[in-house]
Design brief:
The structure holds two protein chains of two kinds. By secondary structure, chain A is an alpha/beta fold. Chain A has helices spanning about 25-35, 55-60, 80-85, 90, 95-105, 125-135, 155-170, 180-185, 210-215, 280-290, 310-315, 325-330, 335-340, 360-370, 390-400, 420-435, 445-450, 475-480, 495-504; strands at about 15-20, 45, 50, 65, 140-145, 170-175, 190-195, 195-200, 235-245, 255-265, 270-275, 295-300, 305, 320, 350, 355, 405-410, 435-440, 455-460, 460-465, 485-490. In chain A, strands 14-17-18-11-19-20-21 form a seven-stranded mixed beta sheet, with helices on both faces. In chain B, about 75% of the residues lie in helices and about 5% in strands. Classes of the chains: A alpha/beta, B mainly alpha. At the A-B interface, helix 11, helix 12 and strand 16 of A face helix 9, helix 10 and helix 15 of B. Chain B: It comes from Streptomyces guryensis.
Chain lengths: ~500, ~375
């Protein structure tokens, strides 16, 4: 069950934040509000009128618009074309539409230029186009799904200014996030969702981040805390001076990774914190051999693998839980047992010599399904028919089945329900006791702090700060992630708010 | 036994049969309507096709044709499994057959040496010609669709240039046909005499071997798994450790090598020389047949046989007063119907599967809840 007993009241002309952990059910709730999913029971009331949304068009007709986390824009069209696409009936596609766009843009301070090609815009500008698109369709209530995940701090501030502008004009904003600081700074009211249920609505004025975090996490939830340290002094992965740059379409060289150096020992979990898009994905890809670094040395268990092919690295014992499981971790149209072979085709039990060992692979798939509690009617169904959490469990099971020396886990519990989350944490801990080294990348700060033995903060392609997970709080880590703090982060015993002020 | 029935899963079997059945019925209906529209009786046309097509001499003809078509289908299917659209099969087989014929005409060695040499030469030429497109794609990002279309034209031009008296060809005694030097009779491939029905080309054996190899390599080897992985998701393949570029180049070369075989049944079993009336366009037929057979080795065989059957029987329909263009109509309709039917049935199957997974989960959740209560 993704949602049950949800009670939420949003007043007109306010910014209302919805807060909750990954997988708490925020996205499901939004999908219901936007007509993408139908509730089994319960009602939605807009302006005193009970409504049912069968599809997004119904929601738009009621003045509810959604700005998705992943933008739905066409790169090869201009801003104007993107805005009118699908809404040509409203104001046509010519001068009238342009006037309307100008009007909206000026009214809310969005600064949108209608004739620029979308591909020339940065992330923040694209987001403003998305907002404009929704307003153009007559929305009075805007739902923003994790709008700050892709933004750098200054852009976040600009977005918040826009939101305040919208509010001042009498529009309503529903703002989904799990970042406490942001929520407290922009929202008028905050509703917290935990395990699919609303656990309370608070006003930011009388609330500290700590109280909010407690509401979000709850006391009965499993915490990813590791018990005793298993860190040895045997280095397993050593990264030294890794550098990666990329030339974009305009011929401008962009540095993606710069001077990255760290060591992970056997039995150690190194966590990397950072706002998404600060080079974490590229770092993982460089270690996996998907991207070739320009400079620097990657040493795995004493062997230089800086430029080794991906397959050799995998055979040498690198397990990989990718960030985007659909693109990098699964063959969606292939049956589960073929997905079990993926990435380990050269290893037992999947093959003998050059030949596949289908029987052994199938048997082992059954075992993984048992051991990792993958809910499926059988191993012949396609990976696409499993839910996200079960897909993730299959991937974790597969990667752990080859006794990896190093596990690269990018958001290992993203989109996974609470029970499965705890199980995945347990598997990681257990393997760590046996000497597994883990590189953990996660947006879930509690997960990072709870699992890691060492913490690093990544900002704009550099490791800018380090922290001790035993003492650091999510708030302190969060402020370092925005580039506000550097060096070694010391926990101060004052309240988190004071600390943020210090850091600035 | 129990395990076997479990694996085969009734519903999947049913869905598997549903798609081709749906396609054939739809194609029959549309064809019947087209014949009706021309003012003729579709019933008698169909019955004439069946009687004529099942005659023993027709059977041999169909098998011979299907041998060529099968090889073309497999060659295209290798690309399809990789998500590569090798339109260049046409040029690859023609240029391969041409050089193989030139070599065959020049050889004076005994058959057991010449025949393998001719076949190898054809495969190598086809592979090289396809490799150009593969290398261009890997190094410069040129779409294989564009490059292979252009290579088809270049192949035509090269053959036209070399197939002249004084170059690599000669004027035959009749004075009307220009061809390469005919193969000595020792280089003829064996044939199976079926009496009055005609000669069955022995190359059908090679086609069967190619089919078995295709099934085995793709389904049972590491290499085949890697190849299919790239075809299904390039990003997942890269993350799983497959060198995607190498795979693209390799599969293009293999596709080209098989394409090289397409002209061999005709050359070694029938014409024994490459002349200006050597069959053309079979590469494109191969695309249709690979689509029809869903890249499945048995499916391609059925598609190739169907194509042979249609060609044989619609030729005969012409003598019965029907329009000969009906062949093209039927072929087009069948391919369309098959593609649409598979897509529909595939989507339905996926939805069913997701529902079943969902139902199973709900059932599991219900039992665990009961346990908690108890």
């Amino acid at each position: 069950m993704a949602n049950k007993d949800i009670d939420i009241t949003v007043r007109t002309g306010t910014v209302h934040a919805l807060c909750g952990e990954n997988g708490a059910g925020k996205s499901t709730l939004m999908k219901i509000l936007y007509g993408m999913q139908q509730p089994d029971e319960g009602t939605i009331t807009v302006n005193g009128e009970t409504v049912t949304f069968h599809n997004p068009a119904d929601a738009i007709a009621r003045g509810i618009g959604m700005v998705h986390q992943h933008f739905m824009l066409a790169d090869n069209l201009t801003v104007l074309e993107n805005v009118v696409l699908g809404a040509e009936k409203l104001y046509g596609i010519g001068a009238k539409a342009r006037t309307k766009i100008k009007e909206i843009s000026d009214a809310y301070g969005l600064n949108v230029r209608p004739d620029v090609l979308l591909e020339e815009l940065g992330v923040a500008d694209r987001q403003r186009v998305e907002i404009l698109k929704v307003l153009y369709r007559g929305a009075k209530t805007l739902i923003l799904d994790e709008p700050t995940a892709v933004l750098v701090p200054q852009e976040v501030d600009a977005l918040f200014d826009n939101l305040r502008e919208l509010k001042a004009e009498g529009l309503t904003v529903i703002f989904i996030s799990h970042k406490l600081g942001e929520v407290l700074s922009v929202a008028d009211e905050i509703t917290v969702i935990r395990r699919g249920t609303t656990v309370g609505t608070v006003e930011p004025a009388g609330t500290t981040p700590k109280q909010l975090a407690e509401l979000m996490v709850g006391s009965e939830l499993p915490t990813p805390e590791t018990q005793e340290s298993t860190v040895t002094d045997v280095p397993l992965l050593k990264i030294d001076g890794l550098h990666l740059s990329q030339t974009d379409l305009d011929g401008v060289e962009r540095v993606i990774l710069d001077a990255i150096s760290f060591t992970i020992h056997k039995g150690e979990v190194l966590g990397i914190a950072g706002v998404e898009g600060n080079g974490q994905s590229e770092l993982v890809e460089a270690i996996m051999g998907i991207r070739d670094p320009d400079a620097g040395v990657i040493t795995l268990d004493g062997t230089d693998i800086s430029h080794a092919p991906t397959r050799n690295r995998r055979e040498a014992g690198v397990g990989y839980i990718p960030e985007d499981r659909h693109r990098h971790g699964l063959l969606l149209e292939a049956p589960l047992w073929e997905n079990r072979i993926l990435g380990h085709v050269t290893e037992k039990p999947n093959s003998r010599g050059q030949l596949l060992d289908i029987k052994a692979a199938r048997t082992d798939t059954e075992r993984i399904i048992q051991a990792y509690d993958v809910r499926t009617p059988g191993i012949d169904v396609t990976a696409a028919s499993l839910s996200g959490g079960n897909q993730q469990k299959l991937i974790v099971g597969r990667e752990m089945s080859h006794a990896p020396k190093l596990l690269i886990a990018a958001h290992p519990t993203r989109g996974v329900d609470v029970g499965a989350q705890a199980a995945i944490w347990d598997h990681i801990r257990e393997a760590r006791r046996e000497g597994l080294a883990v590189l953990l990348i996660s947006a879930d700060l509690d997960e990072l702090i709870g699992l890691s033995d060492t913490l690093r903060v990544m900002y704009r392609g550099r490791l800018v700060a380090d922290a001790d997970p035993a003492t650091i709080t999510p708030e302190e880590l969060g402020s370092a992630m925005t580039g506000a703090a550097a060096g070694h982060l010391e926990h101060t015993e004052d309240s988190a708010e004071d600390h943020e002020d210090d850091a600035r | 036994m129990n395990k076997l029935t479990q694996r085969i899963d009734k519903e999947r079997l049913l869905l598997g049969i549903a798609a081709p059945l749906l396609a054939i019925v739809a194609a029959l209906v549309v064809t019947a309507l087209v014949i009706l529209a021309t003012g003729k009786n579709p019933g008698s046309a169909f019955s004439d096709m069946v009687t004529y097509g099942s005659a023993s001499d027709s059977q041999v003809y169909i098998l011979n044709k299907a041998t060529t078509y099968y090889l073309a289908g497999v060659s295209v299917a290798i690309g399809f499994r990789m998500n590569l659209f090798n339109i260049g099969v046409d040029g690859q087989y023609r240029i391969a057959a041409f050089f193989a014929a030139v070599l065959g005409g020049a050889l004076t060695t005994p058959g057991w040496i010449s025949i393998p040499l001719i076949i190898l030469c054809a495969m190598a030429t086809g592979a090289l010609w396809a490799a150009i497109a593969g290398v261009l794609k890997v190094t410069r990002g040129v779409s294989e669709v564009i490059s292979t279309i252009m290579l088809n034209s270049i192949a035509t031009a090269i053959i036209a240039y070399l197939l002249q008296p004084g170059k690599l060809a000669e004027l035959q005694s009749g004075g009307t046909v220009i061809s390469t030097k005919p193969l000595p009779s020792s280089s003829y491939f064996f044939q199976i005499n079926t009496g009055a029905a005609g000669e069955l080309w022995g190359f059908i054996v090679i086609a069967v071997v190619v089919g078995v190899a295709y099934w085995f390599v793709l389904g049972r080897t590491r290499f085949g798994f890697d190849l299919r992985t790239v075809g299904q998701s390039e990003s997942a393949a890269m993350a799983s450790g497959v060198s995607v570029k190498k795979m693209i180049a390799t599969s293009m070369v293999i596709s080209g090598a098989v394409a090289g075989l397409i002209g061999m049944p005709t050359l070694l079993n029938d014409s024994h020389q490459f002349s200006n009336d050597f069959p053309t366009g079979i590469g494109f037929t191969g695309i249709a047949i690979a689509l029809l057979g869903r890249n499945n080795p048995v499916g391609i065989a059925l598609g190739a046989l169907l194509w042979g059957f249609l060609e044989r029987t619609t030729n005969h329909l012409e003598f019965e007063g029907y329009d000969k263009e009906i062949l093209g109509v039927i072929q087009g309709v069948i391919v369309l119907c098959v593609v649409i039917a598979y897509e529909l049935v595939g989507r339905y199957g996926l939805r069913r599967q997701q529902q079943r997974v969902g139902a199973e989960l709900a059932a599991q959740a219900a039992t665990t809840q009961k346990q908690e209560v108890a």
